[in-house]
Design brief:
Mean pLDDT: 91
Strand content: 15-25%
Low-confidence stretches: none
Structural class: alpha+beta
Order of helices and strands: HEHHEHHHEEEEHEHEEE
Length: 272
């Protein structure tokens, strides 16, 4: 009788799962739920699974994973702390709360600020130890950063994108090209979106209109609306910063980078 049974397709996402692997995980779930009454949903972490940053072994991929989570068809379900890139914390035997397994490392206190106990409590102790990097990795610090590249700032940008009609109910077309997982979200009469994610170890230059899974679904030009990756202050910011109009037939994406581009509805055919 449940209409939103929890989707576990991405819950075990770990290092070594490349663009083709991820496309397969997503497509298998999409095919399984196609034509059913189940409302699609996605989660990449929970209280029983090691955190994304720890599982993937690359903190820079946290924002790329969040970019995917918030733009796939359906409801994103975020485990607390994933929006700031929290990682597992080593717990010694005397501190363990979970005696039946080893689930405590991903259950440590939320890191709100650089204050005592990461701002989680004004008490004398916490139920589990706070991560050692809490003074640098916390909500207050990431909101004050101002460069637009902290995991929290990227997550906030993507939360706005998630409200757009094409992301909420638009069609979904995905592809893989040289290690880049990409997909198009488009609802007829509304702005279209291209999401491009590099989970690999090498860069790739992509002509997206040419490699799209269907013809005439990606235009030649688009606007950058969200960026995951350390491009601020670099020469790449001159090419791919938020708000810039770019040519989608010659986009270079480095490892650990992700982009969301948009275009006006009239920029592509109305067959969607």
């Amino acid at each position: 009788g449940a209409h939103i049974p929890t989707n576990m397709a991405l819950i075990d996402l770990k290092a070594g799962c490349d663009a083709t692997c991820i496309q397969s995980l997503v497509d298998d779930y999409m095919d399984m739920t196609d034509g059913t009454e189940y409302w699609r949903n996605w989660q990449t972490g929970n209280h029983d699974k090691s955190r994304v940053a720890t599982r993937l072994g690359q903190e820079e991929l946290v924002s790329v994973v969040n970019m995917m989570l918030l733009t796939l068809p359906g409801t994103p379900i975020s485990y607390y702390g994933e929006e700031i890139g929290m990682h597992d914390v080593a717990i010694d035997a005397s501190q363990k709360m979970d005696q039946s397994g080893d689930r405590d490392p991903q259950r440590t206190p939320m890191q709100w600020s650089g204050e005592r106990f990461a701002g989680f409590t004004e008490g004398n102790t916490t139920w589990l130890p706070v991560a050692a990097d809490y003074k640098e990795r916390n909500v207050k610090a990431q909101k004050a950063h101002g460069a637009g590249v902290t995991p929290l700032e990227v997550y906030q940008d993507l939360s706005k994108v998630h409200k757009e009609p094409s992301i909420l109910w638009g069609d979904f077309h995905s592809g893989v090209y040289e290690g880049i997982y990409f997909y198009v979200r488009q609802a007829k009469g509304f702005e279209g979106y291209l999401v491009a994610l590099n989970f690999g170890s090498t860069s790739a230059t992509v002509n997206f209109p040419a490699v799209a899974p269907e013809q005439d679904i990606i235009p030649d030009m688009g606007e950058v609306v969200a960026v995951a990756g350390e491009i601020a202050g670099s020469s790449r910011a001159m090419e791919l910063d938020k708000g810039m109009e770019v040519t989608l037939d010659n986009i270079r994406i480095l490892p650990g980078e992700g982009f969301v581009f948009k275009w006006k509805p009239e920029a592509v055919g109305q067959q969607m």
